[in-house]
Design brief:
Helix content of chain B: 25-40%
Distance between the termini of chain B: 30 Å
Radius of gyration of chain A: 21 Å
Mean pLDDT of chain B: 90
Largest sheet of chain A: none
Structural class of chain A: mainly alpha
Low-confidence stretches of chain B: none
Oligomer: heterodimer
Order of helices and strands of chain A: HHHHHHHHHH
Shape of chain B: globular
Order of helices and strands of chain B: EEEHEEHEHHHHHEHEHEEHHHEHEEH
Low-confidence stretches of chain A: none
Structural class of chain B: alpha/beta
Chain lengths: ~240, ~325
């Protein structure tokens, strides 16, 4: 934690500089650039690529959270228990499909651009959230649930006032895993013309320019580390409040 | 008045509770005692319909509980359980105010009620109102659990082994508190336990369950002196029998003129306490005091005579 208090602002500043003032890093990346080629990616603003990248991840993760948590709620009700194996199979399939294959299959249906990427990220993000939400909802403290029923909460009130708040920290762990996976996977979206930071990396790979690859990779990596860290802190705070 | 009328609960055709009939007077404490698997908890849970009876019904003040929606019924019946079951993400105040909130009390009325209950349970409202259950000791959590059950002034309070998770010292205090508060509020309580000692301490009426059947329902003294079956006699315990009986009689009933040596007992102490004091210090009599003033003594002989008279009335 103490190392975090120093490292966190340092990494945030580094990330901001990489996105907003890429030229500052010219001396650093120059040795990796191809002979005579450009050192800094300038075909698009890194800021707009970052925003679009994060936007895709946020949209896909939000949709995956909504669907996975809703499914988890349904299959942990007595009436939905029969669907638990089926829904597990579906979300597992989402995970076993390689994102590249999803992209390839989705392009004919959805065309080039953000569409196929969103679908791939959404499918890929379902499983961790679903599994964690199921664990969280099926391991609630039995005495608390008995009391919730016993003092006269109806089904809906039990869910909203007791089950979901208590399941939140563990569910959030699943969301965190899913978001971090999506942050990395989103770079593949640029192979089908989605605007993501993958564009920088792919441009580097195509022109044998390691400087571009490093630049794109560093930015994506830093986003992943910092967002992961922020979500961990949020979880710790929630656990401190609800655990006991 | 609570009337339990031929209530039965079958699990796969086997009765867990078998045609139990019992009437409970308003303002009394009824303790249901039995071994595990005797059906005592199932019987309790059928009263607020956490379990649905297979046949039979429960009437509260003449009204069948089957005519009310279960969650509405439960808001009228207090419920406290072993391990308290507090909501860990809500403050003490929100936990206690949970049922009044469901009943749409105003915020002012709820917070006044919360403070009143915390005070009743000797917990300073200023200090405890905004704490989370995880920040309380086991005894405090249990008190908050009972306070939550009492919050809406329910017609009836159901308690399922409420003191089961407490250590013996705190348990005795919690039992004394419950008795005091019950007298003060005049609540009707039905409590389930496997501990005959607890039953005799708390009950106006003891109901003994065995294999799903109500085998005896009577005052603690009746249960001890005239057990209906071998099982009841075993639950009471043959060795503890005379001591349990003496524990029901306050010293005040046997106080006589005279003096005695040694430390005095308060008049509210039981004859069992007096007997214990006699045996431990080898005295033939113990002085008795009321509010710090000596009022007489109780003799070993008198205790012995009383025990014999009560055992063979």
């Amino acid at each position: 934690m103490r190392i975090g208090t120093f490292l966190r602002p340092a990494l945030t500043l580094l990330l901001l500089a990489l996105v907003l003032r890429p030229v500052w890093f010219t001396p650093l990346f120059a040795p990796f650039a191809s002979a005579g080629g450009p050192v800094i990616y300038e075909r698009a603003s890194l800021l707009s690529l970052s925003i679009s990248h994060l936007g895709l991840v946020a949209a896909a993760s939000a949709a995956a959270t909504l669907v996975a948590v809703t499914l988890a709620i349904l299959v942990t009700r007595p009436a939905g228990a029969a669907f638990l194996p089926l829904s597990r199979t579906i979300t597992n399939m989402g995970q076993t499909f390689p994102p590249v294959a999803v992209l390839a299959l989705a392009v004919p249906a959805l065309g080039f651009g953000a569409g196929p990427t969103l679908v791939a990220l959404f499918l890929y993000g379902l499983l961790p959230i679903f599994e964690n939400a199921i664990v969280a909802l099926s391991t609630l403290p039995p005495a608390t649930m008995e009391a919730a029923r016993g003092i006269g909460l109806n089904r809906w009130q039990q869910l909203v006032r007791v089950e979901l708040p208590l399941a939140l920290p563990v569910t959030l762990t699943g969301i965190r895993l899913s978001v971090v996976i999506a942050l990395g996977t989103a770079t593949l979206g640029s192979t089908v013309a989605a605007r993501t930071l993958g564009e920088v990396i792919i441009a580097g790979l195509l022109t044998n320019n390691t400087a571009f690859v490093l630049q794109g990779g560093l930015i994506v990596g830093l986003f992943a580390v910092l967002i992961y860290d922020a979500l961990v802190q949020l979880e710790t705070r929630l656990v401190r409040r609800t655990g006991g | 008045m609570i009337e339990i009328d031929k209530i039965t609960r079958l699990y796969n055709g086997v009765p867990a509770v078998d045609a139990v009939t019992m009437t409970i007077e308003t303002g009394t404490v009824t303790v249901i005692v039995g071994t595990s698997g005797s059906g005592k908890t199932t019987l309790l849970r059928m009263i607020n319909r956490l379990e649905e009876p297979s046949s039979g019904e429960v009437r509260i003040n003449g009204e069948s509980t089957l005519t009310i929606k279960p969650h509405i019924l439960r808001r009228r019946i207090g419920y406290a359980i072993q391990g308290h079951g507090l909501f860990p993400h809500h403050t003490v105040a929100r936990n206690i105010g949970a049922v009044p909130e469901l009943l749409n009390w105003s915020a002012d009325k709820i917070s006044a009620r919360v403070d009143e209950l915390l005070t009743l349970f000797s917990m300073e409202p200023e200090t405890f109102r905004n704490r989370y259950p995880g920040e309380l000791s086991g005894g405090q959590q249990q008190r908050v659990g009972v306070a939550r059950a009492l919050a809406s002034r329910p017609d009836l309070l159901l308690m399922d082994e409420p003191f089961g998770a407490l250590d013996p010292v705190i348990r005795t205090r919690a039992q004394d508190d419950l008795r005091r508060i019950q007298k003060q509020l005049g609540s009707t309580i039905i409590l389930v336990t496997h501990d005959m000692e607890e039953a005799i301490r708390l009950a106006d009426r003891v109901a003994v369950m065995d294999s799903g059947q109500l085998v005896q329902h009577g005052t603690p003294a009746e249960i001890i002196t005239r057990p209906a079956t071998e099982f009841v006699a075993d639950m009471v315990g043959r060795v503890e029998r005379p001591l349990r009986l003496l524990s029901l009689v306050p010293v005040s009933e046997l106080v006589e003129e005279g003096v005695a040596e040694g430390e005095a007992l308060p008049v509210e102490a039981s004859l069992r306490d007096a007997l214990s004091a006699c045996l431990w210090t080898g005295r033939a009599a113990v002085p008795v005091e009321q509010d710090g003033v000596l009022v007489g003594r109780v003799t070993f002989e008198a205790i012995r005579a009383r025990a014999r008279a009560r055992a063979h009335p």
